[in-house]
Amino acid sequence: xxxxxxxxxxxxxxxxxxxxxxxxxxxxxxxxxxxxxxxxxxxxxxxxxxxxxxxxxxxxxxxxxxxxxxxxxxxxxxxxxxxxxxxxxxxxxxxxxxxxxxxxxxxxxxxxxxxxxxxxxxxxxxxxxxxxxxxxxxxxxxxxxxxxxxxxxxxxxxxxxxxxxxxxxxxxxxxxxxxxxxxxxxxxxxxxxxxxxxxxx
Length: 201
Ligand SMILES: [Mn+2]
Fold this sequence. Notes:
The protein has 201 residues and is an alpha+beta fold. It has four helices and eleven strands, in the order E-E-E-E-H-H-E-E-E-E-E-E-H-H-E.
């Protein structure tokens, strides 16, 4: 289990990852970065498992790491290009613009993104089905306005959350508390798992 906690200027963040088989390489990869103006997060799951899956998801991470100042749609296109001649990957990318209080997101395949508003309402980002491997694809970027205190959780398909689980996460006082709750829940590992939880302050 690999865990990280960090409090940036605007985002309180907690993440964890676990490989399907302890000690083996994880086919999931993620990346987060906060700048003065925005926060960007990518969660990618390489198709299959092992090294080839890891290589695919890492390619997407490298793109976002190097070019996170670009727009969501451009980054999706660049990730897609980077994934040609690879196993392919599913991924969700989102960018939070602090000044506008807008979250922009785009997803292909089975990476979940749920946003919990302070009112208790949950917004489920609906990803497009399929995966990226360099084939021409149109990307549908959505945006929502978020009030201060909203939370988000992005996770790969190794994590299985019920509706009560999601509500518990969003009601938690901090991402760290939410992550420790989920780690208990997700003891049974059927697939590589990655979970990124954040609070927008
Ligand atoms: Mn998976």
